[in-house]
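User: I've been trying to design a sequence by hand for this structure and keep getting stuck. Would you show me what you'd pick, starting by listing the structure so we're on the same page?

Assistant: Good idea, let's start from the same input. This is the structure you sent:
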């Protein structure tokens, strides 16, 4: 059983919703990322999405685009991101790590080489933003053969037939994009999530994570009512940008931001659990 499956099974038994923070690797410098990752675990992260910086991040808003630009300017490459995961694993062998990025850097390294190296350093899942349902059968088996979960995206506009096609190649969890737009937008409509998530669950037994619009503790708590996991990205990346090279202050800000969301989710989970028991 993979680390992702184990973590989600444990949370399900506890009646808790997973909290998955995202940060861009190498922002503001490659040697800062591992410390940020440990700070997020200390604040209550159940898994971490580590963004692989790319020059044309089409799904990301200005906050994460800026993070990618800073990371690339600092010399961050896919190989260096894998080194960061290896360093993180020296202290943490349990927290699942998902790399989130685009096909181009993987193609340049080579899919087989990437898959072998990623598995060897302790990556658990890979989310390739621009991998289409048509390309997935050519990519996902190589990832899965190395023991990596192929995490897939589903959008609000995705129809039932395509949901089924996407889920056929998915692993770890399904990442549901909560609205039509890029990361960091503020148009999250929690009331519209439940129906779409149920349509996904009808096609797959994998946990469903929701992201792309969670920026406040209230957002996180609301999403936790209907999803198996809450993904928080831009709110954290913004903290990194604001604190610049002051790593101690950045780590403290990341812990503070995420821990408040963790408490809000836990309170919602407890409330929901009590309502079910009543």
């Amino acid at each position: 059983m993979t680390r992702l499956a184990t973590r989600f099974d444990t949370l399900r038994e506890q009646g808790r919703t997973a909290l998955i923070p995202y940060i861009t690797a190498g922002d503001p410098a490659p040697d800062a990322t591992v410390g940020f990752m440990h700070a997020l675990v200390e604040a209550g992260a159940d898994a971490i999405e580590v963004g692989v910086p790319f020059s044309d991040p089409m799904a990301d808003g200005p906050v994460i685009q800026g993070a990618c630009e800073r990371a690339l300017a600092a010399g961050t490459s896919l190989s260096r991101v894998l080194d960061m995961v290896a360093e993180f694993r020296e202290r943490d062998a349990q927290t699942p790590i998902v790399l989130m990025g685009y096909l181009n850097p993987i193609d340049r390294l080579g899919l087989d080489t990437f898959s072998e190296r990623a598995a060897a350093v302790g990556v658990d899942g890979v989310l390739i933003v621009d991998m289409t349902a048509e390309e997935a059968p050519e990519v996902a088996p190589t990832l899965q053969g190395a023991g990596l979960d192929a995490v897939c995206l589903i959008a609000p506009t995705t129809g039932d037939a395509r949901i089924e096609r996407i889920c056929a190649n998915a692993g770890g969890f399904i990442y549901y994009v909560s609205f039509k737009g890029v990361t960091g937008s503020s148009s999250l409509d929690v009331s519209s999530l439940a129906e779409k998530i149920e349509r996904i669950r009808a096609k797959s037994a994998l946990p469903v994570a929701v992201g792309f619009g969670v920026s406040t503790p209230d957002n996180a708590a609301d999403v936790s009512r209907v999803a198996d996991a809450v993904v928080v990205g831009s709110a954290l990346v913004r903290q990194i940008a604001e604190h610049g090279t002051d790593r101690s202050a950045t780590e403290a800000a990341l812990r503070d931001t995420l821990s408040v969301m963790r408490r809000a989710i836990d309170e919602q989970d407890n409330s929901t659990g009590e309502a079910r028991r009543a």
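That's my pick for every position. To get oriented when you compare it with your attempt: The chain has twelve helices and eight strands. The mean pLDDT is 92.
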